[in-house]
Amino acid sequence: MDPGFRSRLIAAVILIAVVCSIFSASPVTGFHLENRDGNGTEAALAEALVLQQSTKLRDEFMENTTVYIDSKNELFKQPDAPGNMNGLYIPEENAIYIRSDRDAARADEVFVQQVGYRVYHTMGFNESTVFPTLDVNPDSYLGHLDLPSGEEREAALFADAFMLYHVSPELLKKDAPEVYTYMDLLVESGGDRATVDDLYMHRQSG
Questions:
Q1: Kind of pairing between the strands at 66-69 and 32-35
Q2: At what angle do helices 193-205 and 177-189 cross, to 10 degrees?
């Protein structure tokens, strides 16, 4: 990207953040964004990107969720927290934490990924009998992810697929068409695990 254009783009996004700073809450019921990192360039950019992306997700995926832009939170310093972690979803709080001090220009992707974790845990996808069977090409974007084992692997795969569907749908469709179809049914229906599993199986048998 041309450096001059990128600078103008970032300036425009920050301007949007300043204009929208009064509106730290989305129309989605119970959704709230709190910027604890202050008014610096990176924090403002992260806030603007999260607010912008929040308007593109279904209400069902974000209801009663709080997003904290909070780079210095102790959660990111815990021994078991991955060193490259820019966002965390905490089920007990129904809250998402995002760092703005590292790669703030990707805060929208981090936000959507963490919403994906929330959907996985709160809408029953940890009990899906379909999603774990979907084919992922080892040479694809999802196939190259450094994922944990067991259930956490499925959660991470689901969250990244959810993010790709919203941010780079063509990439997901090309690399993992079965996963794309599953995510498409999820987003179109806004349904829980049972609904999406049934829709996917019905489509496959049709």
A1: parallel
A2: 130
Task: Yes or no: say if 47 and 21 are a contact pair by the CB < 8 Å rule.
Answer: yes
Print pLDDT tens along the chain (206 aa): 455 545 555 555 555 554 444 344 456 788 999 999 998 999 999 999 999 999 999 999 999 999 999 999 999 887 665 556 899 999 999 999 999 999 999 999 999 999 999 999 999 999 999 999 998 888 888 877 776 656 688 899 999 999 999 999 999 999 999 999 999 999 999 999 999 999 999 988 86
Report yes or no: 167 and 112 within 8 Å, Cβ to Cβ: yes
Return the exposure string of 60-93: e unless at least 16 CB atoms fall within 10 Å of the residue's CB, then b.
bbbeebbbbbbbebebbeeeeeeeeebbbbbeee
